[in-house]
From TrEMBL, chain A:
Lineage, uppermost ranks: Bacteria, Pseudomonadati, Pseudomonadota, Alphaproteobacteria, Hyphomicrobiales
Name this protein carries in UniProt: Aromatic ring-hydroxylating dioxygenase subunit alpha
Organism: Mesorhizobium caraganae
Keyword Oxidoreductase: yes
Keyword terms of this UniProt record: Dioxygenase, Oxidoreductase
Residue ranges of domain Vanillate O-demethylase oxygenase-like C-terminal catalytic in the record: 94-269
């Protein structure tokens, strides 16, 4: 049994829209699980020896846990806002720590080099100062006032704009980002990364979006987000060490890494260490 | 010319790349391959009973094999990519076009398994992919000894485009390219061609990007 506070958290284990009675067999934190629809059309998740696991259906995905979650799946208020389009981007497997997948999502500095001419471009490589905090009441990591020049910030953007971002980490393997919404100034597009930990160094990543965009065909939105994520995948699979270091031994963070520093601190504080390296090697 | 396309498919990328290199403008029709499985839906199955993409449509002509699409694009717009017509070169091109199916099955199969959770015997896929890479490495080295930088001659042909994507993306399927220096040189030669385009996992050569300029309003040190 995993002795880690992460055992009692919710994790995405499948797309609700693609689930059937036959179900899918997958893994959660090293243990085999089965996700299927029951006779009444409700999602059901079973673990080893047929143990019935907690289930929740939120944001297009089925969520489950090996332990006993103390709270419902974290809120995304924008998911209930009328006029948004919800996009199930689909699963991508990555041979990396689930925590590394989240950390990469929080990073802006790599945009010009990994997402060249889409989310960033040279010479616009500077990450301006932004604010990071751990919000005690919500118990979440937040980064705000993040600004970055982007050649093509979204499928709906034509030409370069300076995009503003906010990032939040509401659960150890989930992150939600809010970014300038080109067709609707004043609103934020929501892009979430839900990560299913299969093992400490292997994860299934389920990106999901809630956008104001009535024009772009759904497939184009999916392809745009898959393009971005697949550019990250090869980087993620080559990161060393494979586990996310929580001990600041070998790395020297810069100002641009403030969100990552806060994320790691927050993980440590909660004993969220599945996929983490505790002592620098 | 209309291409039924999936942005993450190496076979679709072959056609986009060949079109870019030969200056042909494609009308792209995105297909929700994953997670939607649109290629198995009625509209696309009617076009291609095999249920695969890419599909290239040009008037009455419907092509469902990527090698045929490469040949068609080259014949239409850039015949030099079909080779000189010398018997040995022609044979080599055909040899590698056929060989490319092994790369699709093995390295492509490993990639789909490791990335998009498709079923398969991952050990066998990777082992067969490695065998194909070793064969390619040896052949490219022999070509180099003959003074040829590419698979069939010293100029790139459709054979190179047919083989390049699945090779370049082998690491996506857990197969490293580190042991193959000649393959890496060949990949560099292809990536430095004029009008080369990228796909996720295949990056442009950084040194070929425009030299960064100082930010406006900031002095150069």
């Amino acid at each position: 049994m995993i002795d880690d506070a992460m055992r009692d958290e919710w994790y995405p284990v499948g797309l609700f829209s693609r689930l059937d009675r036959d179900g899918r067999e997958t893994t959660l934190m090293g243990g085999p699980i089965k996700v299927a629809l029951d006779a009444n059309g409700a999602a059901k998740v079973t673990g080893e020896n047929g143990r019935v696991l907690p289930v929740s259906v939120r944001y297009g995905h089925i969520w489950s846990s090996l332990g006993e979650p103390k709270k419902p799946v974290f809120p995304i208020p924008e998911a209930d806002q009328p006029g948004r389009r919800f996009v199930d981007v689909g699963v991508v497997r990555v041979r990396c720590s689930p925590l590394r997948a989240v950390e990469n999502f929080l990073d802006i500095a790599h945009f010009p080099f990994v997402h060249t001419d889409i989310l960033g471009s040279e010479p616009h490589t500077e990450v301006e100062n932004y604010k990071v905090e751990i919000r005690e009441e919500e118990d979440e990591v937040w980064a705000t006032q993040v600004k970055f020049y982007q050649p093509q910030a979204a499928k709906s953007a034509s030409g370069g704009i300076t995009t503003e971002y906010m990032y939040r980490v509401p659960a150890p393997t989930c992150s939600v980002l809010y970014k300038t919404c080109p067709p609707r100034p004043g609103e934020w597009d929501v892009i979430a990364l839900f990560v299913q930990p299969l093992a400490e160094d292997l994860c299934d990543v389920w990106p999901w979006m809630a956008l104001f965009d009535d024009e772009t065909p759904l497939t184009d939105l999916i392809h745009f987000q898959q393009t971005i994520f697949l550019q990250d995948r090869s980087i993620l699979e080559n990161q060393i060490p494979r586990l996310l270091p929580l001990d600041p031994g070998m790395e020297i963070p810069t100002r641009a890494d403030l969100t990552s520093v806060a994320y790691r601190r927050w993980l440590k504080r909660h004993n969220y260490t599945y996929g983490a390296q505790l002592v620098a090697q | 010319m209309k291409l039924y396309d999936y942005v993450l498919s190496p076979s679709c990328y072959k056609v986009r790349l060949m079109a870019a290199l030969s200056g042909v403008k494609l009308e792209i029709r995105p297909v929700d391959f994953h997670p939607g499985a649109e290629h198995r839906g009625p509209e696309l199955m009617a076009l291609n009973p095999e249920g695969s993409i890419p599909i290239l449509e040009d008037g009455d002509l419907i092509l469902t094999e990527s090698s045929a699409m490469l040949g068609y694009l080259a014949a239409r717009a850039a015949p030099a990519w079909l080779g000189s017509g010398a018997p040995e070169e022609t044979a080599r091109i055909q040899q590698w076009l056929s060989f490319s199916h092994r790369l699709t099955a093995n390295l492509g199969g490993a990639r789909l398994h490791e990335m998009l959770l498709r079923p398969g015997d991952i050990g066998a896929l990777q082992a067969n992919g490695i065998a194909a890479l070793r064969e390619l490495e040896a052949s490219l080295f022999e070509q180099k000894m003959r003074g040829n930088r590419f698979l069939a001659s010293d100029l790139p042909t459709i054979a190179d485009i047919a083989c390049f994507p699945y090779v370049a993306l082998a690491p996506d399927g857990g197969v490293s390219l580190d042991p193959y220096p000649t393959i890496r040189l060949w990949s560099r030669a292809l990536r430095s061609l004029d009008n080369f385009i990228e796909m996720p996992g295949i990056h442009r050569l950084h040194e070929l990007k425009p030299e960064p300029r100082p930010m406006p309003g900031r002095g150069v040190r």
